[in-house]
Amino acid sequence: MSIEPNIKTTPPKLMRAIREAMAGTESVQGRLDAFVTAISAAMQVKVASVYLLRKGDELELSATEGLKKSAVHKTRLKPGEGLVGHVSLTARPLNLADAPSHPLFSYRPETAEDPFRSFLGVPILRGSRVLGVLVVQSEDARSFNEEEVEDLLTVAMVIGEIIVDDERIGGKKAALKGITLAATKPETLKGKAFADGLAQGHAYLHLPPVPPANLLSENIAAEETRLEVGIKKLRASVDAMVSGEAAGISRASKEIYETYRMFAYDRKWVGRLREAVHSGLTAEAAVERVRNEHRARLMKSRDAYLRARLHDLEDLANRLLRALSGEALMPGNKNISDDAIIFAREIGPAELLDYDRDKLRAIVLEEGSASSHTSIICRALGIPLVGRAEGVLDLIETGDDVLVDGETGVVHIRPLESQISGFELRQTVRGEMARAYNALRLKPAKTKDGLNISLQLNAGLLVDLPQLDIAGADGIGLFRTEFQFMVSDFMPKLKEQTQLYRQALEAAGDRPVTFRTLDLGSDKILPYMDPVPEENPAMGWRSIRIALDRPGLMRYQLRALVAAGAGKNLRVMFPMVTTVDEMIEARALLNREIERAKNLAQELPQKIEIGVMLETPSLAWQVNAVCDHADFVSVGANDLMQFFFAADRDNTRVSDRYDPLHPAALSILKFISVGCKMNDTPVSVCGEIAGRPLEAVCLVALGYETLSMPVTGIGPVKSAILALDAGKLRAELEPHLNINTRLSSLRETARKFCEREGVPI
User: What pTM was computed for the model?
Assistant: First the structure.
C-alpha cells in the first residue's frame, strides 16, 4: 500500500525511517520492532513502544525500543488502566511533561521505565476502531510540541493500516499470539434499501484514488501534456460505456451514461482543469482543485438530487486521477471474488462498470440516495443496494463474510451461524415464493367472495415497463413522469417526452396507464431549475402549485401526453391537489392543449380520463365536490398519511410514530372510498401500503378495488387477495372505525383474522 498521502505532513527524516522499516521485514512482529526503532531514532527519544489490544480488551506491550525487551508480550493493562489505558479508552492523545506525577500513572517495574518523565501517547486507529496505543518517552521533563503530536498521530494511523494489512495478507502465520488486529466481532447495521434483493458473499473495499502528494509542478508544459493524455483516456473509456453492453441494460441506463459523457466533454470543466495546471499545479492537484470547487457549490444545495449529482462529478474526477496514474480504464477490470459485495462511501455509475456483473452480488454504501444514478442502475441490473449504512467502512475488511438484505436495508458483517442459516432460509423461501407468485401471474386477483381486484404497477422509467408482463400486472396505476426530467441535465424536449409516454402506452397494450404530471418541489428539484429555499418544502411551493403558477412547463408536458395518446386511451392525473379550484384550473390547462391539437388537426386520443391524486386531508373532506370534476381518484397514501399524522415519512425519528392501520387512518380511507362510490367515481390507492399484503387486504375490505404498488408487491398481495373473504374482514374492522374507538391500531385485529382465515401475509 502507498503511505505517501497519510504522512505528507511528517518530517522527511521520520518518513524515510518508516519506509525503511516497512522494507525490512514482512511479519507483523518484525514490522513492529522495526517501527519503534525507527521512531525512536527519528524523533530522538529514548523510548518508543506499541501496545495492542488483545481479544479480551487488555492492552499488551507488543514492541518497544528503550524499555526492557523481556516485558514484551508480558506487560498488560486493563481498559482505562494507566496512561496507556486512558489513551486507548478516550481515543485521544495524552501529552505530559511529568508522567509519574499524573494520578493515572501506573508503574510497571518489569519495564524499567523509572528514568522517563515526559510521555506522549496517541491511539492507533483504523477507521474509528482503536487497535492500540503508540507511545514515546524521554528522560527530560518537557511537553511535546503540536507538530510532534501531529507527526506521531500520522505515524500511528499508518502503522494501524499496515499491520492490519500484514495480518490479513499473512493470515495466522503473520498474526501475533492472542492479538487479532482485524475486526472479528459480528456486526449488524441498519441502512436504507435502495435496490431490492438478498445477497450473501465476501466484502471488497472500493477505495477511490488517493489525493495527490505533489501539488506544485516543476514543469508546467509536461503537466499540461499529462492532463491532455489523461482527459483523452477518460473520454475514450466513457465513450466505451455508452456504446458498450452495460449501457444497453435499458434506455434509462443509456441516458445516464450519455449524461455522464456530457460531463467528460464539458468545456467549462476541462477549461477549469487546464487553467489550474497552467497556474502551476500538477495535473492531479488541478483535478482536486476543480473537484473542491464543485463540492463547495453543490453541497450548499438542499436538494437531494443536486447533491446526488455531486457524486457523478466525484466519479469523473476519480476516473481522471486513475487515468493520470496510468491505470487502464476498462469495464470489469477490478479483480474481485466470484461473490463480491462492494463496500464504499459512495460509488458512481462509471465505477460500477469497473466490476464484473457476473461476480458482483451486492453493494453497501455509507452514503447514497434512492434517486442517485447508481441506485437506478442497480435496480435495472437487479443488484441489491443498501445505502446510508453509517460507519460501515470502519467495521469491514476485504474478505469478510457478509449478508446484505436489500428488502429491509440490514447488513450483517461476519454473521453468526444462526444469522447465516436464517438468511439462507429466507433466500430459499424467497425463491420458492417467486416461483409460486409466477404460477399465479396470469390468474386474476379475485377474492373468495367474488370481488375482482386490479393490481397495477408503479413505474417511472423504461426499465420498469418489462415488469408489467413479468409480474402479471393489470396496468400502470402510477407513472411518475418527473423521473425522466430528473435523470437529465436539460429539460427533455417535446419529442423525447412524447416518445417515452408512447412507449409506456405501447408496453401496456390494452391495459391502463395513469400518467401523473410533474410532481416537483420539496426534495425533487430539477438540475436546470433554481431551487427555492423554504423552511418546510414538503408543505411549500411544490407540485400542482408550481404547475399553476408557472403553467408553461405543465402545458409543455400536457402537449406531449396528448400527442403520445393519439388513437389510444389516455389517463392523466394531477398530484398534490389541495382544493377543488386547483383541480378545475389544472383540468382547464389540459383542455386548452386538447383544443390546440384539434385546431392543428392532430390525431387525438380515443378517450381521455382526467383524475386527481388525493394526498391531503383537505381534499379528502371535499371528496364529493372533487368527484364533480374528476373522472377518477387515486389516493396517494404516502403523503396523505404523513400529513394526516404530521410525521415526515423520510424522517427516521418520526416516520415510525404512526401506523396506517390506526383506526383514524382507516376511517379517512373509508370516508374517501364511500364518497367516491356514492359519486360513481373509480378510486384506487397507490403507495407503500398498497404493496404490503396485510395493509392491502384491509384496503380491499374498505372498498378499494384497484391498488398500485412496486413490482415486488404484486405477487404477495395477489396471493393474499385470493385467500381473502373481504366481507368477513370488513365486518371485523368496521365496528372500530368511529370516534368512540379506544384502539391505537387495528393491525393485530387484521393479523389475527388473516391467521384464522389462512390469508398469507
Answer: 0.61
